[in-house]
Amino acid sequence: MKTTFYGQSTFEIETSGIKLLFDPFITHNPLAKHIDINSLKPDYILVSHGHGDHVADLLEIQKKSGAKVICIAEIANWLNSKGVDNVHGMNIGGGFNFDFGRVKMVVAIHSSTMPDGSPGGNPAGFVLSIGGKKLYFAGDTALTYDMKLLEDENLDWAYLPIGDNYTMGADDAIKAAAFINCKNIIGMHYDSFPVIEIDKDEVTEKFIKAGLNLKLPAVGESVEL
Q1: Beta partners for 46?
Q2: Distance in angstroms (rounded) separating the CA atoms of residues 4 and 43
Q3: Residues near 10 by Cβ (< 8 Å), separated by ≥ 6?
Q4: Residue 189 and residue 150: Cα distance in Å, rounded?
Q5: What angle do helix axes 170-180 and 200-209 make, rounded to 10 degrees?
Q6: pLDDT one-digit tens code per residue, 170-224
Q7: Are the CB atoms for 92 and 121 separated by under 8 Å?
Q8: What is the pLDDT of residues 9-18, one digit of tens each?
Q9: Are the C-beta atoms of residues 140 and 188 closer than 8 Å to each other?
Q10: Residue of 83, 84, 63, 60 lying closest to 71 (CA atoms)
């Protein structure tokens, strides 16, 4: 199983011939200008919330790939209004068994509005049981004690925002890793805008001192999970 970083919070997970794409924001991200979205052919697209830096390429990639979109109910309704019917709506605390594995939608502390101003429902994260591993995609979130509910999930990897300002920063992400009892962390939601630029060396050192394995892949780089 591998995961590929496409900038901001956009990741692909590929296992057993199935591709899952998270929060597609590529064409408007200057750090991802070398990525051709036409080359992405996901089977599923998972959307954590409705902000533009998470859904900017959602409609185009879904149309070209035919991917099923997994998202909260309000975003599912918004997609239906845009002519997208291949959608699986969920809500916080609910889980569902897909052909690739199980997805549970969990709490994220943030806000959510669609780019056109339509309601985006509540922001969310995902816990995935896939390919014999358990993964946590936190979405955009503050540090929250609700993360303690995941400490017994035996997570193999966690995708955590570290850019600060709009989400938790590195220090709170380290606390989050302790809450969820996961030492393998993939950082996200950083560097795309000036207010979320980070010092990678400083952040990496903080994670090392905390006994954590932090991965900050380059845009387009893959990591084995």
Answers
A1: 22, 70
A2: 15
A3: 21, 22, 23, 24, 25, 26, 29, 32
A4: 21
A5: 30
A6: 999 999 999 999 999 999 999 999 999 999 999 999 999 999 999 999 999 999 9
A7: no
A8: 999 999 999 9
A9: no
A10: 84
Alpha-carbon gap, residue 108 to 128, rounded angstroms: 15
- Residue 75 corresponds to which tokens in the numbers above? 């975003």
Strand 11-15, strand 2-5: pairing: antiparallel
Mind listing the domains of the chain with CATH numbers?
Answer: 2-224 (3.60.15.10)
Place of tokens 């051709």: 36
The H or E element containing residue 207 is helix 200-209
SS3 call for 177: helix
Can you read off the two tokens belonging to residue 200?
Answer: 């990678």
SS3 53: helix
